[in-house]
Amino acid sequence: MSRVTVRDVAKAVGCHYTTVAAALRNSTKVAEATKQKILAKADELGYRRDPYLSALNSYKRNKENPAFRATIGWIDNYPKRRGALYYPGFEEYFQGAFYRARELGYGLEQFWFGDPELRLERGISILRARNIQGVLLAPQPNPDTHYDFEWDKFSVVTFGYSIVKPHLNLISNHQFRLMLTLQRKLATLGYKRIGLHLLRSHDARLDYQLSGAYFAEDVDRQTKDKVPPLFEKVHEFEPFKAWVENHRPEVIITNTDHLPSWLARMNMKVPEDIGLALVTVTKKEPFFAGMYQNGISIGQSAVDLLDSMIRRGQVGIPEKPVHLLIDGEWQDGKSVRKIR
């Protein structure tokens, strides 16, 4: 029995094959009643998508530089214009997204929804007037964000876990594995008393994966090597000083780069007296060792995910959100040394 094709379904329904193809992609450009009629007939005839043919078509589309297809919106909710891009890791997200979008034939345009003079309704109307269907939501300025949006009009991918409601398709560095990798790398350098110093808000915006992985690894440490973590609401010198003096970590995992100056006030040198490792370093980092989170790859993969949603006509809040995780990698630096 021959395979049922899109043209077979079109003939049975009595419409053009391009309408059937669009309906099978769940395109919003096809009326809902027509779409349901086409889907029912396709199911009745036993139509099944040919993955090999789809792969071939994709190859043909991407063999040469694609023509401009549409614009993707990058929405920044920080109180300052381009505020999210102040953070090097987030800037890498944008860079990766920008160049991957261009490779696929999209433009990527920034929209500042954090503008106090721009109402959300006005911002959404601008997106719709520009015929923007795909949206990348930059990381939010605060953890535990509940975000209102006209979800049913757009395909949306967000970065990280700072939006807790609704649950959306998201992409992130694999923070849990990152922390495991970081601790194990430090252990190979001979560090046993590994301390963790974090802002609680930073851990929260990563869905507590850093602390979770720290405690998971801490289970196997000998009692004499355990160091209770220091979580702070704000960075303060005196609590940090007391923590270091009381618990004597050999190396500190942290998310801030100002600890060398604090340790200098305590007459401690890095890395001679104590090591430091950052959970996030850039490729151009001249001093700190730590984890490079592959922000460029995260941005590229965010566009790939969004492109697949646009092609399928997937809009609204997903019933089963997808979490796409990208591994980080250890980057050597001068802030640690081999001690055993």
TrEMBL record:
Annotated GO MF terms: DNA-binding transcription factor activity; transcription cis-regulatory region binding
A Pfam family: LacI
Keywords, sorted A to Z: DNA-binding, Transcription, Transcription regulation
Domain named HTH lacI-type: residues: 4-58
Top-level taxonomic group: Bacteria
SUPFAM superfamilies referenced in this protein's UniProt entry, alphabetically: lambda repressor-like DNA-binding domains, Periplasmic binding protein-like I
The keyword Signal appears for this protein: no
Keyword Protein biosynthesis in record: no
Xref: InterPro entries: HTH_LacI (IPR000843), Lambda_DNA-bd_dom_sf (IPR010982), Peripla_BP_I (IPR028082)
PANTHER family: HTH-TYPE TRANSCRIPTIONAL REGULATOR GALS, LACI-RELATED TRANSCRIPTIONAL REPRESSOR
Protein name: LacI family DNA-binding transcriptional regulator
Organism: Rubellicoccus peritrichatus
